[in-house]
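User
Please review the sequence:
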Amino acid sequence: MIAQRLPGFCTADWTRPEAEFNAALRIVPAPMPGPASAPGLLGNAVQWAAAQGLDKALAQYGGLWLFLYDSVRVARPFAVVGEIRLSAGVLEAEIRDDRNWHGRGPAFALNHKLWVACEEVSQQDSFGFAVFWGSATSKAEVLDGFAMVREFAPTASPGVTHMVGFRLADPLADPVAAQDRWAACVARVGELNMIGWEGALEPGLLDRLPASVQAAPTTMRLPVEHTLAISDFDLAAAEPADGLRRRTLKTLRALFSEALTSD
């Protein structure tokens, strides 16, 4: 049958090397994508998330956040300021305290969760990754999840810590005002980290921030029934008037009131 279409083709051609066989049948192999052209898992995730609608993701997560966490080195709570914004057509997260960490990188909403990957801005020798329980459709007011980072010590040991994010404010349209607010909040979080959050937050919240593992590794999991994450809709519909998350949001916004209204 093949010989009728390709004169000279015979049974022996089936045993030829692949390149010769393809040439005999006049087959042009499809080009194989190389590593440089493949976007990779992270690139695919960011592109897929963007295709679901950046406007929706920005409405759910965009704004100024305070992220409380337990240090992987010192057994006490610390905090960083985070801002989630649109940048160059992607959702971007910037996370910073006043001295140890300043990271920036892509954020994407998948499976009712917010995923963040940040590279250290100044030294570019560190990388952090976080995943939070978020919101299905409404604007998130509290995020709850884990951050995977390295220890800020000569050993640079890898660590995982529980991290809870509280919305401080919505995005600002004016980039100059947004930058001023950002700088004021970074300075304020440095003051509060130095003073200690134990005196600023009630024991009920501190008890909900599990201590990171200081001695031996373990498996960490955050079931949905234990998360503090909540949207503005559920906060209004299900959280009691004196609920822990309502009280904490009110307390944190008061602690940052001057920074949030910085001129």
